[in-house]
Write a structure and sequence with these properties.
334 residues, mainly beta, GMP Synthetase, Chain A, domain 3, Thrombin, subunit H, 3 domains, 8-stranded antiparallel β-sheet, 6-stranded antiparallel barrel, 4 helices, 20 strands, Nal1_N, Peptidase_S1_PA_chymotrypsin, Nal1 N-terminal domain-containing protein, Peptidase_S1_PA
Length: 334
């Protein structure tokens, strides 16, 4: 390996002057997917190309002196923090959020069915603070920041204002009934004398029906947003999901990830916060493809057709609103 290192230092500058080369390193020659014991100079390129497509002056030699070279395709390498930085125009796949939340994902650029104006699509819980419209958690016109507050977004980073959202109705919530509140306070007065660290809370149960966790925001300047999804490209239409379909998303936290559809027409209870649950119907379930902060990501098939809007998940599964329901209820289109 010392010999390979000396040769790398001798040729490093020459290699880095090649148009497609972005880096170099040391390793072992890989033949048909198998790592050999032969030391090699590693040449990192944006994209592997057949030699016949390259000018002779741009071809990486198979050997440098007596040491083999090995080429590894790495794509366009960029700082991973780009998704959480302030960017104008901002792209789907980047951090965004209502001023009262932490951060979620800018899902896509959609258009109002009536005015044709471009709007930012994401989840209700990303753009409208998981509001049902009556709880004071959010209101039309609220500021939306890019990046989201957790990623440093502040008043100077407002990119849009909340424009429209589908209420999220919860099955279990803290009771707002005045009688229940008085009873709660009375019980807690006595509980504190016995168990100071304990607290009694009255919870309200109701049968709720949710189809989507979705909202749109109107940018303060249309030039502040771009329709191209970060690391994926432009949307080419919509498609219905099917079992086994491979789906992909570009999210604020985990970037680009894939999984397969495991179930359709899913009815499931989702934890919306401390002591709060909501039931969602007719959902798409896939394997794991998201982490906290990826909520709001647009989910597409391998043809870059929109299939759904990612809104929840665990270490084992991911839940997605069908895109047809999202577009219909929000009265928007691509």
């Amino acid at each position: 390996m010392l010999r390979a290192e000396r040769i790398l230092r001798r040729y490093e500058r020459k290699l880095l002057r090649l148009e497609n080369v972005v880096g170099t390193g040391l390793g072992y020659k890989i033949i048909e997917g198998r790592i050999t014991n032969e030391p090699a100079v590693i040449v990192l390129v944006r994209k592997k190309k057949p030699e016949r497509e390259l000018p002779a002056s741009q071809v990486v030699p198979k050997k440098l002196d007596e040491v083999y070279t090995d080429i590894i395709e790495v794509g366009d390498v960029r700082l991973l923090t780009a998704r959480t930085q302030k960017t104008r125009p901002a792209m789907p796949g980047m951090s965004i959020g209502h001023y009262k939340i932490t951060a979620g994902t800018f899902g896509a650029v959609v258009r109002d069915q009536i005015t044709g104006e471009p709007l930012i699509l994401s989840n209700n819980h990303v753009l409208a603070n998981a509001s049902n419209g009556r709880d004071g958690r959010a209101a039309v016109g609220d500021p939306i920041m890019q990046p989201g507050p957790y990623d440093g977004g502040g008043p100077e980073d407002v990119i849009a204002h909340l424009y429209r959202f589908i209420p999220v109705e919860k099955d279990v919530t803290h009771s707002r009934c005045p009688i229940a509140r008085r009873g709660e306070n009375l019980l807690n007065f006595f509980v504190r004398m016995i168990r100071p660290d304990y607290r009694v809370a009255f919870m309200k149960h109701r049968a709720a029906y949710n189809l989507v966790d979705a909202a749109v925001a109107k940018p303060i300047n249309p030039d502040y947003i771009s329709p191209e999804i970060l690391d994926l490209g432009e949307i080419r239409g919509i498609a219905e999901p099917r079992i086994g379909m491979t789906l992909v998303k570009s999210g604020r936290t985990s970037g680009v990830s894939k999984s397969e559809v495991k179930a359709l027409n899913v009815k499931i209870r989702v934890m919306m916060g401390a002591g709060e649950e909501a039931t969602f119907y007719d959902q798409i379930l896939t394997g794991p493809m998201a982490q906290p902060g990826d909520s709001g990501s647009l989910v597409l098939n391998e043809n870059m057709e929109a299939v759904g809007l990612l809104f929840a998940g665990s270490d084992l599964v991911t839940l997605i609103n069908p895109i047809s329901a999202v577009l219909k209820l929000l009265k928007v289109t691509f």
